Amino acid sequence: MTAKVVLLDSGGANLGSVQAAFARLGVEAPVTANVAAIRAATHVVLPGVGAAAVTMARLHENGLNLILPTLAQPLLGICVGMQVMYEYSEEGDTCCLGLLPGNIRRLPGGEGARVPHMGWNRLRPITSHPLLNGLDDAWMYFVHGYAASVGGQTLASCEHGEPFTAVVGSGRRFGVQFHPERSGAAGAHLLKNFLALR
Amino acid sequence: MLSRRIIPCLDVRDGQVVKGVGFRDHVVIGGIVELALRYRDEGADELVFYDITASPEGRSVDRAWVQSISDQIDIPFCVAGGIRSVVEARSVLNAGADKISVNSPALERPALIAELAEAFGEQCVVVGIDSLRDADGEWRVRQYTGDPGKTRSLACRTLDWVEEVQALGAGEIVLNCMAADGVRSGYDIEQLLAVRKVCRVPLVASGGAGKREHFAEVFRNADVDAALAASIFHSGELPIPVLKNYLREQAIEVRDVA
Asked: Does B255 contact A120 at a Cβ distance shorter than 8 Å?
């Protein structure tokens, strides 16, 4: 079965970049908020750039906040798209989707660990998972000021001042704090792994 | 651990990449997408595109090339040049840029930084600062440096401006040390270190790279997060894989070259 991917319209500025990343894999990934199109997809992606509150406002506006909890196919949240899958974000005191347990907090920073965390950092796998096949210690591109602590659903962590969740997975709900669409060959590899999930 | 970033800077003028010396006398280096792809393949960590004549000419960046870079490039890139409003920034970001950098327009109207941070998050908002030491020993900010005829010196002290842009929501600062730019005798460590002490967000060094040792020096002695350079990369004199291997030998963490 070929993958049929949709990008949920989260209003994030990286929608085009994520679409281009799938196009480079030979996969068309239309941006949509249409329920029928979403239901027909084999894989759903929730991109996100910007602030959690702005993203949640958009999801309320187009009704995706009600659709997202009902999805049965593999779902991948990217950056803020991942963050809004949690229950709550400190950024703008935002109530989120609650698809994953836990909250998003401001990165504390520290000696030599400036916030926002911006640049290439390594994944530290915590459990083996098909999403991370071939990606042990891979370099990925991060740009964020908020993050989820490491928890029971963390598949891979990353370290910046303190460890945080870089890849999360619960059932068929996944999230990555980095930007696979901007993480070179490693990022493309992760998207391929996601498309191989059923 | 977060790696130190190597960032080739591509100055764009009339749809082509150019390079000048001391911000003057620009010569054409090549096509935008072709150079972007070359640097991506060589292991650049990020790219910066400056539309150097946009601000002096009072116009914003041309989106067509932003879109074509985004379609073909899978590493992050930042676009700068005459972005004066949230609306203009949104169109550049929607065309695929990961970050936008503001310089002269932020000096004209500092509230722009806060508006951009609010709309897109601080991680998207880079503030570029062109700085030069005056006769009294103070570093002060320069404006409209893309056009020597229009370049203005301001009363604003560089260190004060660094504090102010952070308070407004800048997510990263690029410090262009103008006296060092194009001279290739090394980054301005003294100035970068002074800025580093008041800069809590990522700091990018710009201006002065002439050999690989200069990169090790700026990471080690000024503790910058990234080093930006143009001519040393454009000329092919220092291939990025060679630079990264050298930095790794110096125990400076850099992303492996694929």
From this structure: yes
